[in-house]
Amino acid sequence: DVKVTQSSRYLVKRTGEKVFLECVQDMDHENMFWYRQDPGLGLRLIYFSYDVKMKEKGDIPEGYSVSREKKERFSLILESASTNQTSMYLCASSLGPGSGDEQYFGPGTRLTVT
Amino acid sequence: GEDVEQSLFLSVREGDSSVINCTYTDSSSTYLYWYKQEPGAGLQLLTYIFSNMDMKQDQRLTVLLNKKDKHLSLRIADTQTGDSAIYFCAESELTTGFQKLVFGTGTRLLVSP
To answer: Quick one: which of A36, A25, A18 has its CA closest to A2?
Structure first.
């Protein structure tokens, strides 16, 4: 079974703090993704990575950065958290091209910025 | 970018069939997907259909694809209260040589006893 884990289920941070969200997958997947989920907006892609040290901006990268130093780990960084970044953050991974692009999701981190 | 649209809510009675609809815009999508999200959980792949197929059946689930109208539907037969969840459709999009998924807004299915 593919397992994608996220470091926290719930997180409360103050405005201006630096926030790290960690994601680990155990299936040697090439691709990893960070989404945020907001009611009525569905999932929006923040960043993705198709290889170690490679990253690509998604649809809403502003205010975020990412790090992928090891294949199994993909971190999302909020350099200076703001209240409009209060959301559910979902990490996903997929095997790679030709695999059907099925993405496996972690349970999510609900971040509240006060 | 591409756009995937779904209605936000659907309410059915237990035992009825549920039909969740989705329209997409990228005619070059290779695969189209249905994901399910239960309360407090991440998304789980329910089923997917290859773009050259019209229909796919998997136990209580039937996926219909109308490529001409870019319309995808998910039918759940004999809907149970445990089917209450948010259902997302997604299309694959080719960007800078890399395939990524574009998700719809999700349809919240409420099944009443």
So the answer is: A25
**DSSP-assigned beta bridge partners for residue A77:** A20, A65
Residue B109 CA: distances (Å) to CA of A105, B7, B39: 20, 10, 12
Considering only alpha carbons, which residue of chain A is nearest residue B88? A42
Residue that has been written with the tokens 């979902």 in this structure: A90
CB hemisphere CA count around B59 (13 angstroms): 4
CA A39 to chain centre: 18
Residue range B63-77, pLDDT digits in tens: 999 999 999 999 999
Q: Cβ contacts of residue B106 below 8 Å, gap of 6+?
A: A42, A43, B6, B8, B37, B86, B87, B88
Q: Indicate yes or no: CB of A58 within 8 angstroms of CB of B43.
A: no
Sorting pLDDT into bands at 50, 70 and 90, what band is B97?
A: low
- Pairwise CB contact (< 8 Å): B42 & A100: no
Cβ(A69)–Cβ(A77) below 8 Å: no
* Angle made by CA atoms B50, B54, B58, in degrees to the nearest 5: 75
pLDDT (tens digit per residue) in A63-93: 999 999 999 999 999 999 999 999 999 999 9
Cβ neighbors of A110 (< 8 A, separation 6 or more) are A9, A10, A11, A87, A88, A89
> Which two structure tokens, joined as six digits, stand for A113?
């910025």
Taking the CA atoms of residue B22, residue A89, residue A17 and residue A51 in that order, the dihedral angle to the nearest 10 degrees is -100
The interface residues of chain B toward chain A in range 22-51, judged by CB-CB distance below 8 A, are 30-31, 33, 35, 40-45, 48
